[in-house]
Amino acid sequence: LDIGKHLEAGLSGSLGLAAPAGGLLLTLTSSDPSSVFLSTSRTVVGSGCITLQVTAGSASIPTFYVQSLTDTGTVTITTTAPGYATDTSSVTLFPSGFWLNAGNFTRDVFAANVSIQLRSTRLNPATLTRLQDQEVRGGFSVNVDLTNSDPTVGTLVLNPVVFNGGVSVAANTAFDPVSAGATTIALVQPTGFDVPSNVPISIVATVTAPSINIGNVTVGKDLQAGTSISLSNAPPTPVDVTVTIADSSVALISTSRTAVGSSSITFSGVSTTFVGTIYVQGLALGSTQITVQAAAYNDDTGAVTVDPSGFWLNAGNFTRDVFAANVNIQLRSTRLNPATLTRLQDQEIRGGLSVNVDLTNSDPTVGTLTVNPVVFNGGVSVAANTAFDPLSGGATTIALVQPTGFEVPTNVPSSVVATVTAPNINIGNVTIGKDLQAGTSISLSNAPPTPVDVTVTIADSSVALISTSRTAVGSNSITFSGVSTTFVGTIYVQGLALGSTQITVQAAAYNDDTGDVTVDPSGFWLNAGNFTRDIFAANVSVQLRSTRLNPATLTRLQDQELRGGLSVNVDLTNSDPAVGTLTVNPVVFNGGVSVAANTAFDPVSAGATTIALVQPTGFEVPANVPSSVVATVIAPSINIGNVTIGKDLQTSTFISLSNAPPTPVDVTVTIAASSVALISTSRTAVGSSSVTFSGVSSTSVGTIYVQGLAIGSTQITVQAAAYNDGTGDVTVDPSGFWLNAADFTRDVAAANTNIQLRSTRLNPITLNRLQDQEVRGGFSVNVDLTNSNPTVGTLTVNPVVFNGGVSVAANTAFDPLSAGATTIALVQPTDFEVPANVPISIVATVTGP
After folding, report:
1. Residues 143 and 162: beta-carbon distance below 8 Å
2. Whole-model pTM?
């Protein structure tokens, strides 16, 4: 272990064998108590011998502290314990000293105190270089003095610095900056300690004054610009900051934006880095300097340059109509380039000064200025405004007159041209058919400030008239009185004769507008196509339309209504009134009502008729749209389907009408060959060759049952007054019965087993089952079943009876009697065939209990 003089270091160790039960007492002895002490405490002075207790089962020797009393030599520490071999440790003693764990530094006056750390260290005995920092030995205290070459620059908050034994390798003081300058802080080695050769024992502390910040300012003559002042560091206590301008004939300074400045101002009690804003006011072209001062701060200066200034129009040439809102015109004050007088930066008039800027107006009849002169009050804004109020059509030049002491900017407007136009009236061109009319709207480009009368005139009233009413005869001139919005109204232009003319619209203070009127030929056409309806169908609407025609080809161009005040009868011819009649004829077109008028075709009887439109006098036949249509009337149909049935069986079919009759009708159904089949309205009754459904009033007639009598075919005919007959083919196929059951096994005690028989229609070639159908109404068939061994079981019903119109199925049941097997076989009745693909016999097996 290596230790510096009057320093200490901790030491520990271990046992080769853990301490026995009851623990182990170690004795440690210094071979030279005059040079080395031993201590169990870090902060207590030691002695030549100490004892340490090791707890039972532990092999660790507790830490103890070796304290050096001198700076040379070697001392042995001997450790003994009962039952353990003695051990020794060697301690080498070194010189020691103190050093500054800090470097040179710079702080300003208001900076926080700067910590300076001192450290105790073991030194190389040959070179005195620092080897290892070690704390002062326990029970020993050392005062370390520091020298301060210039206490006016700053002071040490703690001096001497006390190192108390066993506390730390370091102790601290702090440097408190007081005023600008530099001082050397040097450590004085206490008696018995040496000066380390390779670490600082002195440092230089430099204290600077904080700075004040103000920028350079360029301002126009009689203008002002604001600039801010700040401190690099906030003062620990409030300070007064004084601002002075060197030449008050060139510029003044003010803390108020609107007040006249002075040569000096003071900001009192400044406690933050922000001092405030000053306004630099230019008085005369040239330059000067602003100086800012505060106790404990370095002064700062800012250059002030005063340039020429002038006013300009922040506006361009404009055009407005008479009724437009006033047009704002903005004037702005600006700093100018002293060489070129070009605009550099807009700045407001200096505080306490008011400048009147005159504007000239070359033609006040065109419009007036609402404010003139325009007043710029110091410290308010870089801009002031007037407005141009349009009065009448024309152009005028608004020019700015520079006030005395101001220059004319060379690159921004000093004048603008205001052009005032009369607003427009808007009406479009109109093309109409002869004796027809079309509406067109009239509008103003701007609403009038007060109501105006708008007059509309047509040049040639023999070609066309105008009207504000859709249904009234027009005239050559109309007036809309008291118009107050942009919408004037709608006029209806009425064509009287082929040709052209012009409409003129006029209103006070507005430009006139004109619209061309062209009158083309016109005619009527049928907005319908050929159609087919049955007798009982609803009436068919037939629409007629009035239209404007191409004057060269007479093709339809645009449907337009008949002109107001005129009524035209349009006749229709009907080539065969027996087929149907027209509900309205002639069709009347009343002026201003619609482009369309209607009649209707009422079907009467089957046939075809042509409905043709006869052009009234003065109208032309359109070349590309219908003037006639063909109406075809047909009788409605009766619907019945084809029927296929088995001999002595029956099936149903439904009869319907394509249209319900307007009044109830009787519907008769007849079968051609009653030897092949009969028909019936009852499911269970024998049919006949003819049945009648009386008073049918809907499309639903009813259901009939077709009953097969003999193999072959025939036809059903259905008839009703005013309807086309309906027919349906009837085919009668072979028929038979089959067992809807399979072989089964039951024990003697089981319940009876149901056996179902079914009647069916058969394929006439293969006799395969096609469709189960019930026995025909009014007919009854007994179907016998054979039982090959009645001792095995009996049939509860035999023969099985099929009653006509009841069901396709009838049932019997097998009652088991004794063990064994028996075959149940169906015997086809006379005139019935044996089906080829379904069971007609089954085996019933009965087992004993």
Report:
1. yes
2. 0.53
